[in-house]
């Protein structure tokens, strides 16, 4: 029999499964398919206002880094100072950690350097001049002459007009194509003296690590990617990188939908799961629920507001959401945070979801990730940090209980 | 000071139609619109050039003129129209259902006499339940029979834009985002009209001998500038728009209060509409409400049970400029129009036109232009039912265009539906700028060349204008993918500063939000969770404004 079933394959669920597996527990990770993890921006912001030394946050990120690393992906950055990374619009984001190819674009390192940004025809939202203008404006201490723009027409895709970044990025998994691009870039910059070369985030998905190292080798300058505006490139790298690690650590991956609990009084004995093969029961000692909010399906997106599988009540702050319409939780101004995205489960000090009376739904069901109330990850950064830390905490609670 | 024969205020179908008519008769015409062409009632309409089926019972003349005008519109702008087959299911069994079916059929038979010859309609047909469910398996059970008829759909935003374009090509001038701030009498040369450019925040004055107030629900406000009165009973109507086709045929349903509502195909999407409620609120800040959304869903659900599972990306909201009557339900108000001559109110030369339906805009514009022309003793005859609108001057072989510019036929087809034969003018630019073949909005799709064209030739001055001309950002992503690249193009064309780009994006997202918040439920709420993350990345861009 399984020790733990983790429901939900986003960052929180995946991290919880890794933590439990590291304590030699027998774990199954049930997910409907790719979701939040594959869509995430692939950087870790620390929750604002949070004590950076918070041990579960540190431990969870350390665990996440080591797991990604065993999948070949290296997260760079640090606890004491955030990175300063630019995105396609020339806006600056300040995550603590990012994938190596992105972290190497840290603007703090640019002072006194000459940086080339490669303008690949048809791939950009804004002209690169605007991006440079944005960087100079948003990040002090750099001069216009520090950042050069070099334009390149790459026939292989420019004949299509523009293609979404994720499509081009997948295309770069063809190593031959990546080499061709790298040679063109080298020809473009070789006669000049640069300290680093910036590229759009297109350096592969499945074979990102290989593609990145090939490109660096051929271009002969340190290369970096700037952050994409759309989701789906860097997150997918994480997802593809972490899956083999889960297998290696003995975590059973299941593509299934959890539909219903099997319980006995205060104890959850199993859950019904539905796959294309049909319905079956998955039994375990403990369960972690990390199914996300509306996007993940943890909360059905129409009232009455009840958690999808166990029917736990959904709260917004301290208020029970009940049956009020979504509309009543919206701010009329588009760009203000929308209160509804801060909704979720309330949990006890052991991370167990609570019913309306304030007692745990089940003694052996724990919750993690954005399904928890109060953190609106859409209105602020830090969602990834919260997800990882809460997954870690939920796993620790189970380990504590089992011990 | 510039002096015009006639100034037409209002850029909806009636205003642009009247301006076109006046210009083609040789009058020196200025068209002003305080927001954008088609941004008010016209653009929020059900987008149908229908034959007035419902008036057949009480007002045969309206049916006839509607059908006639629908026929004209097909001739002058065929590229903007598409045929919408309608299905009217009859539920129940026994004698009552049988008799009801016969009654409806007789009614439609009478309609055929107008719709078939005058507006190129197809005769009604009667389907048995097997045929009905084969045609539309999504319908609720218990159908006794169904009847079909057809109407024509139209891009109403484009109809306004091409009417304005035609006016200008016939010598008129047109200004959008220009509000009339005052009307003054006293000058010997005519009425002094004070204008304000709402984007540049600049003011100016022009003179006109005649002023036409064609501002729809705003017409009482404009008339009030001259202390004149237009009495309306404004009726708010909303539609829900889906991210995909729900059905390829329009389905008629009955709402809880007995009103007829429909699901109808619109471009790549479907629309549900409409409501009709007295409206007393702010005309410049229209939002749909939950009860209106629910009213529509509940009504359609009876006929099409899975309707709530579809994703509704946004709403459209407009206010009908219905003529005032006391003591009637909204739906029973006459949809006729009227021309008000304000000379007896101390405002000689000022006319207002209000009421009517989108379907007969051309006829109304003609009547209005007749009145204006008479003032100038202009004997030129109306040509607006004969002369093609811009884009309809020639036929285009889309296969040839597709091969010539190496673009997918679908892209070319969608472009043709918006611009007709002007498609060549748009695509010619890609020969010197190959990168303008870039697809900016994937949902439609919209090419960079089209975005640049509507900025250069069709007065698009902000992102919402571009959306109205091209449907960019109105699909399933609601602009989160395409607003930024479109803003970059806008910035390039109009030399906008970073601050102005931020402001343009902010204004666009606020407008999209007002339109989608009322239907933020189901899968749309899940989509919004992603959208919010992406908006967060735009933070700096938006803060710059």
Provide structural commentary:
Chain A has 403 residues and is of the alpha/beta class. Chain A has helices at residues 11-22, 36-39, 55-70, 100-103, 128-138, 155-158, 165-171, 175-189, 208-219, 234-248, 383-402; strands at 2-7, 27-31, 43-44, 75-77, 85-86, 92-93, 97-99, 115-120, 147-152, 196-199, 223-225, 252-255, 257-264, 267-275, 278-289, 315-316, 319-320, 343-344, 365-367. In chain A, helix 1 runs parallel beside helix 11, helix 3 packs across helix 11 (383-402) and helix 8 (175-189) packs parallel to helix 9 (208-219). The longest helix of chain A is centred in the C-terminal third of the chain and has 20 residues, at 383-402. Chain A starts with a strand and ends with a helix. With 545 residues, chain B is of the alpha+beta class. Chain B is built from 17 helices and 20 strands. The radius of gyration of chain B is 23 Å and the shape is globular. The mean pLDDT of chain B is 94. The interface between A and B is large, with 48 and 47 residues.
A few lines on this structure:
The complex is a heterodimer of chains A (403) and B (545). Chain A is built from eleven helices and 19 strands. By secondary structure, chain A is α/β, with parallel strands linked by helices.
Offer a few descriptive terms.
heterodimer; A: 403 residues; alpha/beta; FAD/NAD(P)-binding domain; Rossmann fold; seven-stranded mixed β-sheet; four-stranded parallel β-sheet; 11 helices; elongated; B: 545 residues; alpha+beta; D-Amino Acid Oxidase, Chain A, domain 2; ten-stranded mixed β-sheet; eight-stranded mixed β-sheet; globular
The count of domains of chain B is: 3
Count of separate structural domains of chain A:
2
Shape of chain B: globular
| Most extensive protein-chain contact, per-chain counts | A-B, 48 and 47 residues
Q: What is the average per-residue confidence, as pLDDT of chain B, rounded to a whole number?
A: 94
Question: SS-based structural class of chain A?
Answer: alpha/beta
CATH architecture of the largest domain in chain A: 3-Layer(bba) Sandwich
Per DSSP E runs of 2 or more residues, the count of β-strands of chain B stands at: 20
CATH topology of the largest domain in chain B: FAD/NAD(P)-binding domain
- Give helix and strand order of chain A, one letter per element, not per position: EHEHEHEEEEHEHEHHHEHEHEEEEEEEEH
Distance between the termini of chain B: 35 Å
């Amino acid at each position: 029999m399984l020790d733990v079933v983790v429901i939900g394959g986003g960052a929180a669920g995946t991290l919880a499964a890794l933590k439990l597996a590291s304590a030699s527990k027998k774990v199954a990770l049930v997910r409907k398919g790719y979701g939040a993890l594959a869509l995430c921006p692939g950087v870790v912001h620390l929750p604002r206002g949070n004590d950076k030394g918070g041990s579960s946050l540190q431990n969870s990120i350390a665990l996440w880094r080591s797991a990604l690393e065993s999948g070949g992906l290296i997260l760079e950055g640090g606890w004491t100072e955030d990175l300063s990374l630019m995105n396609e619009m020339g806006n600056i984001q300040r995550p603590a950690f990012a994938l190596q190819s992105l972290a190497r674009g840290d603007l703090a390192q640019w002072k006194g350097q000459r940086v080339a940004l490669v303008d690949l025809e048809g791939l950009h939202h804004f002209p690169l001049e605007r991006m440079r203008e944005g960087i100079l404006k948003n990040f002090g201490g750099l001069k216009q002459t520090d950042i050069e723009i070099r334009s390149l027409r790459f026939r292989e895709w420019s004949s299509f007009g523009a293609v979404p970044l994720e499509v081009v990025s997948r295309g770069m998994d063809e190593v031959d194509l990546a080499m061709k691009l790298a040679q063109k870039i080298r020809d473009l910059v070789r006669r000049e003296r640069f300290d680093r070369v910036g590229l759009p985030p297109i350096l592969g998905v499945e074979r990102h690590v290989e593609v990145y190292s090939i490109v660096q080798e051929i271009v002969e300058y340190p290369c970096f990617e700037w952050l994409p505006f759309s989701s789906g490139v860097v997150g997918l790298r994480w997802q593809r990188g972490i899956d083999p690690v889960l297998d290696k650590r003995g975590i059973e991956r299941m593509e299934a939908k959890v539909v219903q609990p099997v319980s006995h009084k205060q104890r959850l004995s199993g859950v019904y799961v539905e796959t294309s093969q049909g319905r079956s029961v998955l039994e375990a000692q403990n369960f972690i629920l990390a199914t996300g909010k509306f996007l993940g399906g943890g909360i059905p997106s129409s009232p009455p507001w009840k958690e999808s599988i166990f029917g736990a009540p959904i709260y917004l702050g301290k208020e029970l959401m009940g049956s009020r319409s979504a509309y009543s939780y919206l701010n009329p101004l588009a760009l203000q945070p929308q209160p509804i995205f801060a909704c979720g489960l309330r949990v006890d000090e052991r991370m167990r979801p609570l019913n309306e009376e304030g007692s745990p739904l089940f003694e052996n069901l724990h919750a993690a990730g954005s399904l928890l109330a109060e953190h609106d990850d859409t209105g602020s950064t830090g969602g990834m940090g919260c997800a990882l830390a809460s997954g870690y905490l939920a796993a620790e609670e189970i380990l504590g209980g089992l011990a | 000071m510039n002096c015009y024969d006639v100034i037409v205020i209002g850029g909806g179908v009636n205003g642009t139609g009247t301006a076109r008519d006046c210009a083609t008769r040789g009058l020196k015409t200025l068209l002003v619109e305080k927001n954008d062409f088609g941004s008010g009632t016209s653009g929020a309409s059900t987008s149908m050039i229908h034959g007035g089926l419902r008036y057949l019972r009480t007002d045969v003349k309206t049916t006839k003129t509607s059908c006639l005008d629908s026929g004209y519109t097909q001739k002058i702008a065929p590229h903007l129209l598409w045929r919408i087959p309608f299905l009217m299911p009859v539920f129940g069994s026994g004698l009552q259902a049988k008799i009801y079916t016969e009654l409806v059929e007789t009614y439609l038979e009478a309609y055929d006499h107008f719709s078939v010859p005058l507006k190129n309609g197809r005769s009604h047909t009667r389907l048995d339940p097997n045929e009905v469910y084969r045609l539309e398996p999504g319908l609720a059970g218990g159908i006794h029979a169904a009847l079909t008829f057809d109407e024509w759909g139209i891009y109403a935003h484009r109809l306004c834009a091409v009417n304005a374009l035609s006016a200008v090509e016939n010598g008129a001038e047109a200004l959008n985002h220009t509000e009339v701030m005052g009307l003054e009498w006293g000058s010997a040369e005519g009425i002094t009209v004070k204008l304000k450019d709402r984007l540049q925040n600049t003011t100016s004055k022009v003179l006109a001998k005649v002023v036409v107030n064609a501002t729809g629900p705003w017409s009482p406000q404009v008339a009030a500038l001259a202390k004149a009165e237009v009495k309306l009973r404004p009726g708010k109507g909303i539609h829900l728009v889906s991210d995909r086709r729900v059905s390829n045929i329009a389905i008629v349903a009955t709402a809880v209060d007995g009103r007829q509502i429909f699901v109808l195909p619109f471009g790549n999407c479907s629309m549900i509409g409409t409501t009709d409620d007295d409206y007393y609120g702010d005309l410049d800040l229209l939002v749909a409400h939950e009860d209106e959304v629910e009213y529509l869903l509940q009504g359609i659900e009876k006929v099409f049970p899975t309707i709530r599972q579809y994703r509704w990306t946004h709403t459209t909201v407009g206010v009908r400029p219905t003529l005032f009557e006391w003591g009637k339900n909204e739906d029973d108000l006459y949809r006729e129009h009227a021309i008000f001559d304000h000379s007896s109110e101390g405002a000689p030369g000022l006319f207002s036109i209000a009421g009517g339906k989108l379907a007969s805009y051309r006829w109304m514009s003609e009547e209005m232009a007749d009145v204006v022309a008479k003032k100038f003793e202009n004997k030129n005859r109306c040509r607006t039912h004969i002369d093609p609108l811009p884009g309809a001057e020639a036929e285009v072989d889309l296969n040839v265009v597709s091969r010539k510019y190496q673009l997918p036929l679908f892209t070319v087809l969608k472009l043709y539906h918006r611009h007709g034969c002007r498609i060549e003018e748009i695509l010619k630019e890609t020969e010197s700028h190959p990168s303008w073949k870039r697809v900016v909005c994937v949902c439609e799709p919209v090419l960079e060349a089209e975005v640049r064209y509507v900025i250069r030739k069709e007065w698009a001055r902000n992102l919402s204008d571009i959306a109205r001309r091209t449907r960019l950002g109105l699909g399933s992503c609601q602009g989160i993918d395409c607003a930024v690249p479109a803003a970059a193009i806008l910035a390039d064309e109009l030399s906008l500063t970073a601050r102005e780009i931020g402001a343009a994006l902010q204004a666009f997202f606020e407008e999209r939000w007002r339109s989608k918040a009322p239907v933020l439920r189901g899968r749309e709420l899940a989509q919004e969770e992603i959208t919010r993350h992406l908006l967060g990345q735009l933070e700096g861009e938006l803060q710059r404004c």
